[in-house]
Amino acid sequence: MRRLILSGLLLTSAAHAQALPSFEGQVIYQVLPDRFYDGDPTNNAGVDRSNLRAWHGGDLKGLTEKLPYIEKLGATALWLTPIYRQQAVNSFDTAAYHGYWPENFRQVDPHFGSLATFDAFVKAAKGAGMKIVLDQVINHYGYEASAVKANPGWFNGKAQCDVSRDKDVDCPLAGLPDLRQSVPAVRAALLENSDFWRARGVDGFRYDAIKHVERPFLLDLLKKDRAAGTWTLGEWYDADTGTVAEWQKQGFDSLFLFSLQAAMRQSVMGSSGLGNVANVLARSGELARPGEVALFLDNHDVPRFAQGSLFEDEGQARTKYGLRALMTLRGVPVIYQGTEIAMRGGADPDNRRTMRFEDAWTPAEKGVYEVAQGAIRVRQASAALRAGTQTLLTVPDSLSSDLLLLTRTSGSERKLAAWHGGTARKTYSVRLNRLGLQASAQDVTRTLYSGQDAKVSVSGGFLHLSLPPKDAAVFALK
Ligand SMILES: [Ca+2]
Ligand SMILES: [Ca+2]
């Protein structure tokens, strides 16, 4: 039966190969609305900015006001964590500020605004040419949601969990009231939720916790989204390339590549060699659609990228490296609010400190922002970096801990990215044929990233590189 469903989907994709929803070429900015910008103090019930577990007052009006900030950074799309009406009371001394404890899936939480302020936000974002990805919760309601008492048959109880052969799916995640998507009323309601938000003009959905959702339902949901042209981004916590590949085959356009995030945390922010990153990138051939995979340094569920260093200045320097490196890769970069200024923070909720804007930045934070903005600008100005093919070069073993090289190609345009993990400035000369690289002689060419001293040249059958410590550069290559 499952095989039949799969082959049906594959046939559908083949028949509509030109029409698949795509975000290749976009740069997504992730917003946690409560922690972004307070544009309306009249909806600040229960706000306590001294408590990371309380509401902080950010809202849709504030986000709308700050769209020019996001545009100026260079992002072209937004992912909003859930804006649904939340359970009104706290659980575990924590408010539902994060949006993952829904009470009603078709209303906007009053802390964020109303359907009218959501519509105004959509109109403003569209007017600025930005795409919108909305977070959709399909696995659970909030702990205290009224639906739990009103419709007990909608949820998995202890009995279902005990006998289940797939406890990831049928047992509550963190104790949350777990929806049984195979119950017709649940299935219908969840499908209609997607239609409801789609009709309000969103371009994509980020589906939360897909590891915990009944698969037949998920496949139906994806089929519907695809038919409607809605881009789908799945969150399978800790997904590696194989998981992303499997789900792309089954109908997701994209998943977050957690394995790359872990490797970049270890190699770019930490002191491991670049082999971790190369090992992840070497698998990109497994992906049916490598240009769609979501690439990120951090998000609201993992410690901040900059937190990987004990020292604030080092965290800032390596965040610059991480952002420059990320912008050389094939896929859809996702920048979590505040990563562009190397905000710090450990595990949740410390990784959700309220965003600070220009007037509150230190000079060092402004420096990180300028690197982020510059790297995005370079990416967006290049068809090869934005949406070209990617080839990982084979760096000799003796160098591969400190040096990662890849090319991005689109038509006759080619770029060379060089990530350097060494802690001192260094010059490398490597035979082109050792790298599997074909290149004609090229005079000394400077990096495309501004504020960086990096150079490349090609002569006598060698690639010569001069690279600053712990940084990523990108060059035009003939
Ligand atoms: Ca507010
Ligand atoms: Ca579940």
UniProtKB/TrEMBL annotation:
Entry's InterPro entries?
Answer: Alpha_amylase, GH, GH13_cat_dom
Q: Which GO terms describe its biological process?
A: oligosaccharide catabolic process
Chain ranges of the Glycosyl hydrolase family 13 catalytic domain: 30-379
Pfam families recorded for this chain?
A: Alpha-amylase (PF00128)
The signal peptide stretch is: 1-19
A molecular function (GO) term: cation binding
Swiss-Prot/TrEMBL keywords: Carbohydrate metabolism, Glycosidase, Hydrolase, Signal
Please indicate if the UniProt record lists Zinc-finger as a keyword: no
Enzyme Commission number(s) of this protein: 3.2.1.1
Provide the catalytic activity annotation.
Endohydrolysis of (1->4)-alpha-D-glucosidic linkages in polysaccharides containing three or more (1->4)-alpha-linked D-glucose units
User: Its family?
Assistant: Belongs to the glycosyl hydrolase 13 family.
The protein here is known as Alpha-amylase
Organism, by scientific name, is: Deinococcus reticulitermitis
